[in-house]
Design goal:
Length: 54
């Protein structure tokens, strides 16, 4: 019984950490995409490329 409780709590902790890492990764990806869109809206690097991404 004690082993089940310890394993259950460890598993919950791992899942919680995974969710936090997952959120951080997607926040970084989202920020990177937003920056890329911003650059492209301004005419791209060097003013050569212009796209409207939605």
């Amino acid at each position: 019984m004690i082993v089940k409780i310890v394993l259950g709590e460890s598993l919950k902790s791992l899942i919680r950490e995974f969710k936090l890492s997952y959120r951080r990764i997607f926040r970084v990806i989202g920020e990177s995409l937003a920056e890329a869109r911003s650059v492209l809206r301004r005419g791209g690097p060097g003013g050569v490329l212009s796209l409207n991404l939605r």
